[in-house]
Amino acid sequence: MIHLRQAQHSDADAIAHLHTAGWRDTYTKVMSADFLENQAQKDRLSHWRSALNQSNESETVFVAEYDGKVEGFICIKLHYDAQWGCYIDSLHVSSSLRGHGVGKQLLCRAAEWVKSRDDESPLYLWVFEDNTQATAFYQRLGGTIVERTLSDMPSSDHAPVFRISWKNAGQLLVSAC
After folding, report:
1. How many CA atoms lie within 13 Å of 106's alpha carbon, on the beta-carbon side?
2. What is the DSSP string of the chain?
3. For a disulfide at 66, which of 9, 71, 112, 168, Cβ 3.0-4.6 Å?
4. pLDDT (tens digit, 9 = 90+) per residue, 108-165?
């Protein structure tokens, strides 16, 4: 059974490992092989150790545990953008549990968190155009592609990305949960 909970500083290494594995599984056509193999793990370790060491009431991370192991996570930032609202910064699920509803559970938990703080704010995320499975997943859960642009993410070679948006957390909850 999947257990969702708020991430703790002690989860940083597990989240970084999962994040790196997700990039390596999914972004081989988007990110350089050198970055994925030689720099991504160190980059994600530094990022998550720092992020989870800070207290920020407008940002949270939830993890999904299965048999006591972190198998998924989502990071959401409240009121991140004046126009687009709350930013779903990361959503990653281990390859062994993809397609088993873990991503949906994490999105629902994040939407509940947002709704309890601001039930009118829109939500959005970025997804690489090449990641057709994730794009289809978000669309099945009521997300709408509202923009196509080029990524400014380091080591992404300015690959095309979609902005996917929900009107508010309530819409996401109705569509997905």
Report:
1. 31
2. -EEEEE--GGGHHHHHHHHHHHHHHH-TTTS-HHHHHHTHHHHHHHHHHHHTTS--TTEEEEEEEETTEEEEEEEEEEEEETTTEEEEEEEEE-TTTTTTTHHHHHHHHHHHHHHTT-SS--EEEEEETT-HHHHHHHHHTT-EEEEEEE--STTSTT-EEEEEEES-HHHHHHHH-
3. 71
4. 999 999 999 998 999 999 999 999 999 999 999 999 999 999 998 878 888 999 999 9
